[in-house]
Amino acid sequence: MEVKVEFERKILNVDNYPFELLINTDLINDPTKINFNWCWYVELQKFDDDENDHLNLQRLMVEIIQKIIKITDIKITGITLYKNLYEIIFYAKEEDTQKIGGEFAEMPYELEDRENRFIKYHAKRDNDWNNVKLYFDAFTKN
After folding, report:
1. Helix, strand, or coil here: 2?
2. In 58-85, which positions are buried (b, 16+ CB within 10 angstroms) versus exposed (e)?
3. How far is the CA of 103 from the CAs of 17, 27, 121, 135, in angstroms?
4. Residue 117 domain-assigned (yes or no)
5. Is 7 within a domain?
6. Residue 14, in any domain of the structure
7. Total structural domains in the chain?
8. pLDDT score recorded for residue 142
9. Which of 5, 53, 62, 86 could form a disulfide with 44 if both were Cys (CB 3.0 to 4.6 A apart)?
10. Which regions in the chain score pLDDT beneath 70?
């Protein structure tokens, strides 16, 4: 299954550090998103000792998303980068949480390109998409 997602990008200032926000703004008014009520976060470590590490992170993000979309439908929501924490955010249906959790159990061993890259993954119910509301607001409010 091929999925094409276009992100809009903003750089905000949080505690005097840049906070890079890439959001799939097509989801802001997507009426089908209500069916996807579990918010998933994947946190990866960005390393400063490699000037091209952002490319490694992008490659890993694609690989992670490809593994998940092979087993279920998701709404790829966004990416944040703050300090050295790279976070991938997507939403899934409640009935798919065990499948996704099972996939994540093995993922660091299969994909990790260097030690300590994968920090954690976690999910929580978010029926109203409140976890990303501020991110969406950054693109819709002036």
Report:
1. coil
2. eebbeebbebbeeeeebbbbbbbbbeee
3. 33, 24, 11, 27
4. yes
5. no
6. no
7. 1
8. 65
9. 86
10. 1-2, 142
